[in-house]
C-alpha cells in the first residue's frame, strides 16, 4: 500500500479539476484511499489523513468516517497528533454524536498534562464543544486551572469556565473560590479581560452572585482608572487608547453591578465622568467606549450632571460621519427622552436635521424622537420641519407621520386657524395615507371650531378643485360643503384675508357630482358626496337639480347610496299634495337587489300580522286595476303596510309600468321596489309593490297616485286620488 | 457572541470555516453560500455591518466583514453578548463592529507575520495552521487574545513543538516554505486553471 499522499498534494490535485463532477471524483477516490488507510490502523499517516479529511470537509464533502480517527489522534502521545486530532474533533464532532463522550477521559488527562500547549488544546476543545456531561465531569479540572499562575492557561480556563457555566449553570458555585484573585493587581492584559468576562457571565445568571460581586466595584474602578491614566503601552494600545476592550468589558460589568444599587452607583460616578470626558473620539474605538459609558450611566443610579453628560455625548454622536453611530445614538436618545426630557430637548435641532438623513432607519428614528420632543413651546418650528418631512419621506412613513402630526396638533395647537391649516396641509400632501379613523376625528374638530367654518370650507373647496384623488381629503371636504355650503357660496370669511373662492351653487354641485361619478372615488366617498348634495337641498336654491341627482341613485347598485336616495325621496314626496306640480321621477329599471335598502326597517318592525283589514280597489281604468291590501305591524301600529296589486285586463301587456304615490305632509311614505315593470295582459299576472306609510298623528289617510306605462306602443299617464281607505288602515 | 468565522474568496470558495455553534454539514454549506451572496453584493469601501441571512439563528445576527484583495473575512455575530440575550443588538452594534473589526485586523496581521506576507495561497495550503492561529485569538466564540505579538509567539512555540517531533505532517510545511523561498514556477503566484482564475497579490499592510 503506497503512502497516502500529502495534504498539499491533494490540494493541488483538487485545484486542477475543471468541473464540480471532476472534483467530486477526485475526492471520492481519495476518501476511498483514506478509508483503507484507516482500516490498516496505521499510526504514522493518521494525522496526514485526518488533515486531508478536514480539507475535504471544508469543501462540503462528508467526513464523518474520520470522527473516531480524531479520537485516536487525541489519545496519541505526540503533540502533532493531538493538535490535528483536537481540531478535527472540534470541526467534525458535536455533542449530538455519542462518540464525543469518548473524548472525556483524554481531555481529563490532557488538562493535567505536563505541557501547557496540550493543556491549552484540551481547554480549547472543552470550551468550544463540551457537552453537559463532559462539563460536569471536568469542571473540577477547569477550576484548578483557573487558579494557576500560568497566564496562558488561566485566560483559556476562564473562557472555558464560561462555557461550563452556560452548559450547566448549577456548577457556577464551584468556580466561586477561584474568582477571589481574578482581579488582583498582579494580573493584567488578557487575564483581566477573560476574568471580567467570566465575572459578567456569573453576575448575569445569578442575583446572588451579583450581590456577592458588588464588593469588586472598587477594584474594577481602580483598574479602569489605571487604564485611562496610564501612558502609552504598546502591547495593549489601540489607536492611542489603552486596552479599549478591557475598558469596555469593565464598563459593562459596572453597569450590571451598579444597576439598582445606590452605593455601587455612587462609587463609580467619578470614573464614569472621567472616561466620558477623557476618551479620544477620533476613532471608532473611542466611540465604542464612550457609548458603553453612556449606557452604563443611563442604567445605574447616576447623578443628574452625569446623565446630562451622557446625553451630550449622544448629541455629539448625531454629528458623526458613521451612520451606525448616528443610529445607535438616536435609539438611545429615544429610550431616555421621557426620563431626561430637558436634556434631550437641547439637541432638538440636531435631531431634526436627522430627518434629512439618507438612511431610512435613521429617518424613522429621528421622526419618532421628534414627535416625542414636540411641546407647546416648539410646536410651530417643529411642525414646519415635520410637515416638510411628510412631503418628502417614504410612503412607508407617511401614515405614521400623518397620525403623529394630527396628535401633536391636537395637543399643542397655538390657534384654531393654525390647527385647521395644519390639518389641511396634511390632507393635501399626504391625503391618501391618512388613516381612515382620522376622517371622523377631523370632522369633529371642524365642527368644534365654530368660528372657522367659512374659512375651512373655502379652503377645502379650493383643495378639491385641485385634486380629487385623495379620499380622506375628499370625504372631509364633502362633509364640510354639505354642512357649510351656504358659507361657501356667500364668500364670507372670518379671517382677515379671505380666500379667493368664487363658488356658485351650480359649480359646487358640479364638483360634488363629479365626485359621485369619478373612478377615483371609493364607495365611502360617494356616500359622503351624496349626503352632502342632499344636505345642500336645504341650503341651496337649486333644489330641482339636487332632486334629479338624488333620484338617479334611488336605484343605484350601491346599496348605501340607494338607501340614502330613497330615504331622501320619501321625505320629499311630502310636498306633492301641497300643490307642487313637480313629481319626482323614479327610474323604471328594476333594481338587481329586490330586497331594497329599506328592508332592514321591515325587520325592525317585527312581525307583520294580517289584521283583517279588507282590501280595496284604488284605481280601475282602461283595463288597469290597482288593488290595495293592508297589513299592520304589531309593535308599531302607526305604520301601515300597503301592498298594491296591479293587473291588466286588456289583451296587450303594459310595459315600463311605474307606480308613484304621494301623501299629505303629516304622513311619511316609503315606496319599495316593484316586483316587475310589466303588467301582463289578460290578468295573467300582477305587479306588486309595497308602500309603507307612517301616520303618527292618526289622520285620515289620503293618497295621490300617478301611473305611467306603455300600452300598444303609446305612452300612457294618469293621475288619481285615493280617498277610500278603510278606517282601520289609519286609525 | 461570535457564531461563525468564515473566510472565502471572491468566487465564494471557502478558505476557512469555523462555526462556534452546531450546524449540520449541509446547513454549514448553505450558510457559506448565503453569506457570500450577501457580502459580495456590497461596496468594498462601505463599512461592513449588515443584516445576516435567515439561516443562522434567525434575524438576530449580523455580519461584520472586511474585504482584503481576493478574500472576504466574515464574522457572524449573535445579537446577545451572553446567551441570555440581556443586551440587545442595537446596543451591542457599535461594540461588535469595533471589536470584530479589530479582531479581524489582529488575525490578519498575525497571519501576515506567521506566513511572511500572507496571500490566499497560504490559506489554501495551510488550512490547519490558519485554524491554529485562529484558536489563539477566538475561543468558543469569545475573544481570547488581541495582542498580536503574544499570539504569534504562542503559535511559533507550538509549531516548533511539532517540528521537533519530526514526523510526516511537519514535512510538508517545511517543504512549502522552502519552495516559496526558491521561487519555483511550480507554485506561481498567478494561477490560471480552467475557469479558476486567481490573482494573488500580497495583502496590504495595515
Main β sheet profile of chain A:
6 strands, antiparallel
Oligomer designation: heterodimer
Ends apart, CA distance between termini of chain A: 121 Å
What percentage of residues of chain A falls in helices of 4 or more residues?
A: 55-70%
Q: End-to-end distance of chain B, in Å?
A: 25 Å
Strand arrangement across the biggest beta sheet of chain B: 2-1-5-4-3
Low-confidence stretches of chain A: 573-610
Q: What is the total tally of β strands of chain B?
A: 9
Summarize model confidence as the mean pLDDT of chain A: 85
Major β-sheet of chain B, in short? 5 strands, antiparallel
Q: What's the alpha carbon Rg of chain B, rounded to whole Å?
A: 18 Å
Average pLDDT for all residues of chain B = 74
| Helical amount of chain B | 40-55%
Question: How many H/I helical runs of chain A?
Answer: 31
Class by alpha and beta content of chain B: alpha+beta
Question: What are the defining features of this structure?
Answer:
heterodimer, A: 731 residues, alpha+beta, six-stranded antiparallel β-sheet, 11 strands, 56% helix, B: 206 residues, five-stranded antiparallel β-sheet, two-stranded antiparallel sheet, 21% strand, disordered C terminus, membrane (chain A), AP-1 complex subunit gamma (chain A)
Amino acid at each position: 500500500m503506497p503512502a497516502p499522499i500529502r495534504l498539499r498534494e491533494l490540494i493541488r490535485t483538487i485545484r486542477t479539476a475543471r468541473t464540480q463532477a471532476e472534483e467530486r471524483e477526485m475526492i471520492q477516490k481519495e476518501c476511498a484511499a483514506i478509508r483503507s488507510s484507516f482500516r490498516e490502523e496505521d499510526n504514522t499517516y493518521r494525522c496526514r489523513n485526518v488533515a486531508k479529511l478536514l480539507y475535504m470537509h471544508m469543501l462540503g464533502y462528508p467526513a464523518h468516517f474520520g470522527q473516531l480517527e480524531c479520537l485516536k489522534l487525541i489519545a496519541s502521545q505526540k503533540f502533532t497528533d493531538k493538535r490535528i486530532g483536537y481540531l478535527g474533533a472540534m470541526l467534525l464532532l458535536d455533542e449530538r454524536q455519542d462518540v464525543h463522550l469518548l473524548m472525556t477521559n483524554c481531555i481529563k488527562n490532557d488538562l493535567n498534562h505536563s505541557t501547557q500547549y496540550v493543556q491549552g488544546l484540551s481547554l480549547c476543545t472543552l470550551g468550544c464543544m463540551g457537552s453537559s456531561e463532559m462539563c460536569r465531569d471536568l469542571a473540577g479540572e477547569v477550576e484548578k486551572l483557573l487558579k494557576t499562575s500560568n497566564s496562558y492557561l488561566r485566560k483559556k480556563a476562564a473562557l472555558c469556565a464560561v462555557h461550563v457555566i452556560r452548559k450547566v449553570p448549577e456548577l457556577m458555585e464551584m468556580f466561586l473560590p477561584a474568582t477571589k484573585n481574578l482581579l488582583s493587581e498582579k494580573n493584567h492584559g488578557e487575564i483581566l479581560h477573560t476574568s471580567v468576562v467570566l465575572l459578567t457571565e456569573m453576575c448575569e445568571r445569578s442575583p446572588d452572585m451579583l450581590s456577592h460581586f458588588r464588593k469588586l466595584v472598587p477594584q474594577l474602578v481602580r483598574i479602569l482608572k489605571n487604564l485611562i491614566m496610564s501612558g502609552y503601552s504598546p502591547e495593549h494600545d489601540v489607536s492611542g487608547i489603552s486596552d479599549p476592550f478591557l475598558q469596555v468589558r469593565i464598563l459593562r460589568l459596572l453597569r450590571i453591578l451598579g444597576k439598582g444599587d445606590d452605593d455601587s452607583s455612587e462609587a463609580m460616578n467619578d470614573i464614569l465622568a472621567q472616561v466620558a470626558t477623557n476618551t479620544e473620539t477620533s476613532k471608532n474605538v473611542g466611540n465604542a467606549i464612550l457609548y458603553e459609558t453612556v449606557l452604563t450611566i443611563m442604567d445605574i443610579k447616576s447623578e443628574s450632571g452625569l446623565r446630562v453628560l451622557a446625553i451630550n455625548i449622544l448629541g455629539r454622536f448625531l454629528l458623526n460621519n458613521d451612520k451606525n453611530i448616528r443610529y445607535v445614538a438616536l435609539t438611545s436618545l429615544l429610550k431616555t427622552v421621557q426620563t431626561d426630557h430637558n436634556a434631550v430637548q437641547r439637541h432638538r435641532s440636531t435631531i431634526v436635521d436627522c430627518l434629512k438623513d439618507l438612511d431610512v432607519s435613521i429617518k424613522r428614528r429621528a421622526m419618532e424622537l421628534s414627535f416625542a420632543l414636540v411641546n407647546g413651546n416648539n410646536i410651530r418650528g417643529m411642525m414646519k420641519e415635520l410637515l416638510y418631512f411628510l412631503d418628502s419621506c417614504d410612503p412607508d412613513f407617511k401614515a405614521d407621520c400623518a397620525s403623529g402630526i394630527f396628535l401633536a396638533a391636537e395637543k399643542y395647537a397655538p390657534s384654531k386657524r393654525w390647527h385647521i391649516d395644519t390639518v389641511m396641509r396634511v390632507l393635501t400632501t399626504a391625503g391618501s395615507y391618512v388613516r381612515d379613523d382620522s376622517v371622523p376625528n377631523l370632522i369633529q374638530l371642524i365642527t368644534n371650531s365654530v368660528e372657522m367654518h367659512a374659512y375651512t370650507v373655502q379652503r377645502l373647496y379650493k383643495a378639491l378643485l385641485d385634486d380629487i384623488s385623495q379620499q380622506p381629503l375628499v370625504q372631509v371636504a364633502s362633509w364640510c360643503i354639505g354642512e357649510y355650503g351656504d358659507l361657501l357660496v356667500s364668500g364670507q370669511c372670518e379671517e382677515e384675508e379671505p380666500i379667493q373662492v368664487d363658488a356658485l351653487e351650480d359649480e359646487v354641485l358640479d364638483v360634488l357630482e363629479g365626485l359621485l361619478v369619478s373612478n377615483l372615488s371609493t364607495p365611502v366617498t360617494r356616500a359622503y358626496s351624496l349626503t352632502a348634495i342632499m344636505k345642500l337641498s336645504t341650503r341651496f336654491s337649486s333644489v330641482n337639480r339636487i332632486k334629479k341627482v338624488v333620484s338617479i341613485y334611488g336605484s343605484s347598485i350601491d346599496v348605501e347610496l340607494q338607501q340614502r336616495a330613497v330615504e331622501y325621496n320619501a321625505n320629499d314626496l311630502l310636498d306633492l299634495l301641497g300643490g307642487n306640480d313637480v313629481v319626482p321621477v323614479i327610474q323604471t329599471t328594476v333594481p338587481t337587489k329586490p330586497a331594497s335598502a329599506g328592508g332592514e326597517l321591515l325587520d325592525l318592525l317585527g312581525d307583520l300580522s294580517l289584521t283583517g283589514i279588507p282590501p280595496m280597489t284604488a284605481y280601475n281604468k282602461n283595463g288597469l286595476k290597482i288593488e290595495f291590501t293592508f297589513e299592520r305591524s304589531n309593535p308599531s301600529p302607526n305604520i301601515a303596510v300597503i301592498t298594491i296589486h296591479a293587473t291588466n285586463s286588456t289583451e296587450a301587456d303594459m310595459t315600463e309600468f311605474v307606480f308613484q304615490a304621494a301623501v299629505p305632509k303629516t304622513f311619511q311614505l316609503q315606496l319599495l321596489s316593484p316586483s316587475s315593470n310589466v303588467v301582463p295582459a289578460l290578468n295573467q299576472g300582477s305587479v306588486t309593490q309595497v308602500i309603507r306609510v307612517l301616520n303618527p298623528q292618526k289622520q285620515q289617510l289620503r293618497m295621490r297616485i300617478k301611473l305611467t306605462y306603455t300600452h300598444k306602443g303609446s305612452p300612457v299617464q294618469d293621475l288619481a286620488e285615493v280617498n277610500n281607505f278603510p278606517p282601520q288602515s289609519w286609525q | 457572541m461570535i457564531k461563525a468565522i468564515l473566510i472565502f474568496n471572491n468566487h465564494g470558495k471557502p478558505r476557512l470555516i469555523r462555526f462556534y455553534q452546531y450546524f449540520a454539514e449541509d446547513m454549514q454549506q448553505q450558510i457559506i453560500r448565503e453569506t457570500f451572496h450577501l457580502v459580495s453584493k456590497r461596496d468594498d469601501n462601505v463599512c461592513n455591518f449588515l443584516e445576516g441571512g435567515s439561516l443562522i439563528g434567525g434575524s438576530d445576527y449580523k455580519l461584520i466583514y472586511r474585504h482584503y484583495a481576493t478574500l472576504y473575512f466574515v464574522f457572524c455575530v449573535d445579537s446577545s453578548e451572553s446567551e441570555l440575550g440581556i443586551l440587545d443588538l442595537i446596543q451591542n452594534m457599535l461594540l461588535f463592529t469595533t471589536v470584530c473589526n479589530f479582531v479581524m485586523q489582529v488575525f490578519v496581521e498575525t497571519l501576515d507575520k506567521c506566513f511572511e506576507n500572507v496571500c490566499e495561497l497560504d490559506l489554501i495550503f495551510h488550512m490547519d495552521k490558519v485554524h491554529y492561529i485562529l484558536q489563539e485569538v477566538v475561543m468558543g466564540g469569545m475573544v481570547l487574545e488581541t495582542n498580536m505579538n503574544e499570539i504569534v509567539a504562542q503559535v511559533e512555540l507550538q509549531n516548533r513543538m511539532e517540528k521537533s517531533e519530526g514526523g510526516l505532517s511537519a514535512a510538508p510545511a517545511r517543504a512549502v516554505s522552502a519552495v516559496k523561498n526558491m521561487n519555483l514556477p511550480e507554485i506561481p503566484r498567478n494561477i490560471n486553471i480552467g475557469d479558476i482564475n486567481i490573482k494573488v497579490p500580497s495583502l496590504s499592510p495595515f
